[in-house]
Amino acid sequence: MDSDQPSFTDVEYGNRRRVSRRETFLDTMDATIPWSVWVGLIEPHYYAGGPGKKGRKAKPIATMLRMYLLQVWFSLSDEGVEEAIYDSYAMRRFMGLDFALEQVPDATTLLHFRHLLEKHQLGQKLFEAQNEIFEAQGWIMRGGSIVDATIIAAPSSTKNASGTRDPQMHQTKKGNQWYFGMKAHIGTDAGTGYVHSMTCTAANVHDLDEAVHLVRADDEVVYVDAGYQGAAKRPEIAGDVDLSKIEWRVAARKGVLKTMAEPDRVTESRKASVRAKVEHPFLIVKRDFGFTKTRYRGITKNSNHLNVLFASANWLMRARAVALMG
Questions:
Q1: Is the dihedral of CA 199, 203, 207, 209 positive or negative?
Q2: For 123-177, how does the pLDDT look when each residue is reduced to its tens digit (9 = 90+)?
Q3: Following DSSP, what letter does each residue of 3-56 receive, concatenated?
Q4: What is the pTM of this model?
């Protein structure tokens, strides 16, 4: 059978009056992701020791990458994404599968592929490659960053195989509420809101400790919330020839804001409008991609997952920006 020949299902679905949001999203990402670049980053590691090294023939990297991204974007388990592809025409089309010729890779094959990405820190490399493309295309406005962090909850229950909570996750208090889990710290471009740097820590690590890893050497100004008071005085920042020149625009604490004169409150409002851009990628990762709780045990595995999520969020934001301009 000619793989380019549309199947009966393709013809049937082509006659629909309405396209689902899932299909629209997948079509957008399919047209946006730099497949050749991302596949090229994985290839040296995949055939050297990836799935299929022994026994049956390895599935194509592009097929496994697409399946993995479906898992990431829809917050599915290994078994769950396998089932979802069988059930969803939109996912099957995104995968480029014709069931008359081949079946969906099984959950174990996906598990091995995910472990391969984690072992070689390929999630970070995909994120870095995305940033390099944005830089080369001139889609980044240099000179300023916004730095912030969000808590990702982890299971606090000990009702699991090990009988223990994840030892790399920790408890922290925010306001009057306690949280158990990890933090995702990001630096975003102040002009566009695209994420240019990301780190993961246990939840009890102070936001200030990660600030130095989230700013760029050529940043002139950095916008942060009130939790970053004293950032400019940190030795790792004050002692750096480039970072010491940064102007830190730190939000006033609520108690101080109430006592400010009107002109100063207007200035604070303007700073807040810039800082608001950092919430967009967090919103995509948590609401659109459903990553509100850690999927795996340990910081490393979740960090790999988050690198792919923020790279995907950047591509989605770029696609939406282009659609608005068009």
A1: negative
A2: 999 999 999 999 999 999 989 999 999 999 998 777 666 668 899 999 998 888 9
A3: TTSPPHHHHHHHT-S---HHHHHHHHHHHHS-HHHHHHHHHHHHHHHSTTSSSS
A4: 0.89
Whether the CB-CB separation of 198 and 310 falls below 8 Å is answered with yes
d(CA 162, CA 96): 39
Q: Is 1 exposed, middle or buried (0-12, 13-18, 19+ CB in 10 A)?
A: exposed
Locate 126 and state its tokens: 């995909």
Using CA atoms, how far residue 126 sits from 163, 311, 312, in Å, is 34, 7, 9
Spell out the residues 6+ positions from residue 37 whose beta carbon is closer than 8 angstroms to its own. 129, 133
DSSP characters over 216-285? -TT-SEEEE-GGGTTGGGSHHHHTSTTGGG-EEEEPPPHHHHHHS-HHHHHHHHHHHHHHGGGHHHHHII
Q: Mean pLDDT across the chain, nearest whole number? A: 90
* 174 SS3 class: strand
**CB burial of residue 296 (10 Å; 0-12, 13-18, 19+):** middle
Distance CA 29, CA 89 (A): 16
**Termini Cα distance of the chain:** 38
Kind and range of the H or E run holding 151: strand 144-153
What is the DSSP pairing of strand 177-189 with strand 170-174? Answer: antiparallel
Query: For residues 266 and 134, what is the distance between their CA atoms, to the nearest angstrom?
Result: 33
DSSP state of 296: S
Q: How confident is the model over 40-76, as pLDDT tens digits?
A: 999 999 965 555 455 567 899 999 999 999 999 999 9
Query: Is the CB of residue 42 less than 8 Å from the CB of residue 34?
Result: no
Find out whether 246 and 223 touch, Cβ atoms under 8 Å: no
Cα separations (Å) of 282 from 31, 194, 195?
A: 23, 11, 10
Q: Is the dihedral of CA 6, 9, 14, 15 positive or negative?
A: positive
